[in-house]
Structures are given as C-alpha cells and as structure tokens.
Amino acid sequence: MPEGLDIDALLGELATALLAAGMRPAGLIQKRGKAKPGCACREMWVQDLASGTRLNISESRGDGARGCHLDWAALAQATVLVETSLQSGTEVLIGRFGRAEAVGKGLAVAIATAVAADMPVLVALRPGYAPAWRDYHGGMAAALPPDPTALAAWLCAVGDKTRAA
Asked: If you write DSSP's letter for every residue of the chain in order, what string do you get?
C-alpha cells in the first residue's frame, strides 16, 4: 500500500458504490476513532457491510500499554456476522487480511468460505502481512493497485465470470 493511503476509506467507498448499484457485499470495513484517554492508541471499529452493525474491536489496556490493542472477542463477534451474511445471497466479500487472519482468525474462515462458493473476495493488507497472505492464498490471488477505478474494473470482470459460471 502506498504511504498515507487510507485503505479503509477506499474499501468503504467501494462498498458504498456496490450498495448503490444494488449489489450485496459482505465483509468488514475498519474505522479508527480518537485516542482513548490514558492510551496512545486510537479506537478501532468495524462495520459489517450486510447488517450495518458497528462494533468496537479495541481493548483498553491501560497506561503504558504498547502495541495493538485488538479485542479478539469483539473481532470474533464481528466475523460471525460476516460468516452469517455469506449464507444469504451476498455477492462479494470485502475486508482486510492482517494480524488476526495471519493466525487463522478474523476473516480467515469467511475468506475461505467465499472462495469455495466462487464469490469474489477483495482484501487489503499491509506489506508486512504479504508473506502470510501468500501462504494463505497459495497462488489463487491477484494483486491490484489501490485505485477505485482498478478495483471497480476487477469487480466487474470477476463478477461477469462468476455470473457466467
């Protein structure tokens, strides 16, 4: 990802465009809030695309805490929403591949479920997770530039192939 790119905003814009076009995306869009009092980290939220449910996935670890403050239980709750939506006619899965997915949690099962159903899957990842992503997808993924036009063109192309199958 290019430095300074707000990939979550880009994914959110794509999801909004898909919804406006009458498509039914599944997945999670991450948003960051303000820094919590006594903590240098910013709040993390995810919004489930199918239901609109918004969940705080931050865990306050108190003063002096370092590193990610992911609330694993809240993330698991969010992924259940996504996995449920995959069973109800969604057409594309959108999300991130990060720390949780690299260890088989988060959207890892939902991604595998969508791929098994021949559903297009669009994930964003930081460069540090590229090796885990390659191990996960085993050569089945294509790299796309983080550009709205390129993402829309890819989605149209894979959507046409999926509908033709």
From this structure: --TT--HHHHHHHHHHHHHHTT--EEEEEEEEEEEPTT-SSEEEEEEETTT--EEE-B----TT--S--B-HHHHHHHHHHHHHHTTTT--EEEEE--HHHHTT-TTHHHHHHHHHTT--EEEE--GGGHHHHHHHHTT------S-HHHHHHHHHHHHHHHHH-
